[in-house]
Design goal:
By secondary structure, this protein is α/β, with parallel strands linked by helices. It is built from 14 helices and 24 strands. The strands form five sheets. The chain has an eight-stranded mixed beta sheet with strand order 1-11-12-10-9-4-5-8, with helices on both faces. An eight-stranded mixed beta sheet has the order 13-23-24-20-19-14-15-18, sandwiched between helices. Strands 6-7-17-16 form a four-stranded antiparallel beta sheet, with no helix packed on it. The N and C termini lie far apart (56 Å).
């Protein structure tokens, strides 16, 4: 088995936090429609362009599963009929040291939510990898175990040096090249089109997009500056801020437009009403030190998009973020089956003072966070000392139960918003009331994290982080 492992350097993996994408203007990221197919447009005028895929039949992915149904007629006689159920769609998402955590997690999360069987495979000799910003993720398997498998989609996340390490993995190269040769779906986001797919000669005659800092590395005749580009079997996108579009494009290609639209709405991606991004009340200055310290407590069942996005965005802004597990282990299993490794246990983290405590959401994780006596004490001390705290998605309910939303304006996920007795504002993605900050969660959590950056450091730094993420951000 060891001889089948991908080829990686024998030297220690490069330090992930040493690389930062520069601040460059993004293309618009507002989603006005989730339809990605048969919509040909000029590459310079729209956020999404598509070229028609080949009608050539693709290889059967796996044997269909027979099912038996027994029915009883009006005369009492039973009849048995057999039908064939389609196998689940199978997706490969490889990860490496330096992989962009947001791009990987969002891709896996969205496709699993749509019903795909997503395999997260490490191209390193071990399952646990340190992704961008120091986030530690645990893969489901090693890439060597995937070499004989057939996938409906191979989706490569970006990030540096992650894209280079994906490129240097021979097993992954063979899997992806075979995917392209057999006309099955494959794609890459951010740095991966230029750094990984281009050296493998998988971009020939295909319009391709990528991160603004790397777009000049792509063949000029085929490079397009759109947030999403579908060109036959190849799908490419620009960065963490367009990762939802990237993942939903595969959902539509695998399951259809209606499923993609339904998933998009459940992720709070519906921007048709053009709701206000932020609302602030009782404005006060958030006075903190030169390097603010933030605690993000996590538990089994927490929402991985919210955890990873908050941590990634804040660390890009040079915030000292501590991820603390309330479980007995630093390793937690998030809501869509992604394994995240915390920095420490909550008991070890409790000895420090934090400028801000942020609770991620998801109801299954909320119950566990609420039961943590240590976390409850930390939140009460945070409030008594007049320090900042916040919550996203369903977790404002935790603050409500502990009396920390009294006389405060807040927002929350629609599923719990009506259960809060304080003044809930439905017209904004992020609400700030003094030293409380809340968000609807999921796809709005990037705006939540950027709002924190703005309050801590000012508009200029928030805008710079947004540009690197390829997120549309207000000019003032």
């Amino acid at each position: 088995m060891e001889s089948m492992l991908c080829l990686v350097s024998s030297a220690p993996p490069p330090k992930v936090s040493s690389f930062r994408l520069s601040s460059l203007p993004p293309a618009p990221t507002k989603i006005s429609s989730l339809s990605f197919t048969c919509r040909c447009a000029s590459s310079s005028s729209g956020t999404t362009t598509t070229t028609k895929r080949s009608s050539k039949p693709t290889k059967t992915l796996s044997p269909k599963i027979p099912t038996t149904t027994t029915t009883t007629g009006t005369d009492g006689a039973q009849e048995t009929s057999s039908s064939v159920a389609a196998p689940p769609k199978k997706v490969l998402v490889p990860i490496a040291f330096g992989t962009d955590a947001m791009e990987a997690v969002i891709t896996v999360y969205v496709l699993r939510r749509a019903g795909a069987e997503v395999i997260v495979a490490s191209v390193e000799p071990q399952l646990e990898i340190e992704a961008s910003g120091g986030t530690r993720l645990v893969a489901d398997t090693l890439i060597s175990s995937c070499s004989g498998e057939v996938f409906d989609v191979v989706a490569l996340p970006g990030g540096m040096p992650g894209s280079a390490r994906l490129r240097d993995c021979e097993v992954l190269r063979k899997i992806t090249c075979t995917q392209a040769e057999e006309k099955r779906l494959y794609g890459a986001i951010s740095t991966a089109p230029a750094i990984t797919l281009l050296p493998w000669d998988l971009l020939t005659y295909k319009k391709t997009t990528g991160h603004p800092q790397f777009i000049d590395m792509l063949p000029k005749v085929w490079a397009v500056e759109t947030n999403l580009q579908v060109s036959k079997e190849l799908t490419t996108s620009r960065g963490p801020g367009t990762a939802f579009q990237f993942a939903l494009s595969f959902v539509e290609q695998l399951f259809g437009q209606s499923v993609a639209e339904e998933i998009g709405k459940s992720l709070l991606l519906d921007t048709s009403d053009d709701r206000q991004r932020y609302k602030e009340f009782n404005t006060v200055e958030w006075s903190v030190g030169n390097k603010p310290r933030v605690l993000v407590p996590v538990a089994n069942g927490c929402d991985e998009i919210e955890v990873v996005t908050i941590v990634d965005v804040l660390r890009r802004a040079k915030v000292d973020v501590v991820v603390a597990s309330i479980e007995k282990s630093v390793k937690i299993l998030a809501s869509q089956g992604i394994q995240i490794v915390a920095d420490k246990l909550i008991g070890d983290a409790a000895g420090s003072v934090y400028d801000l405590i942020i609770l991620p959401g998801e109801i299954s994780g909320d119950g566990r966070l609420h039961k943590s006596r240590i976390l409850k004490k930390l939140l009460q001390e945070q409030d008594t000392a007049g320090r900042i705290y916040g919550a996203v998605c369903s977790s404002p309910a935790i603050l409500h139960k502990q009396g920390l939303l009294k006389d405060k304006r807040a927002t929350a996920h629609p599923s719990v918003a009506t259960k809060l007795t304080n003044e809930v504002l439905d017209g904004a993605k992020v609400v700030i009331d003094g030293k409380l900050i809340t968000s609807k969660g999921l796809a709005t959590v990037t705006h939540f994290a950027l709002a924190i950056v703005k309050k801590l450091f000012g508009h200029a730094r928030a805008k710079g982080v947004a540009r690197a993420l390829v997120v549309e951000y207000p000019s003032s």
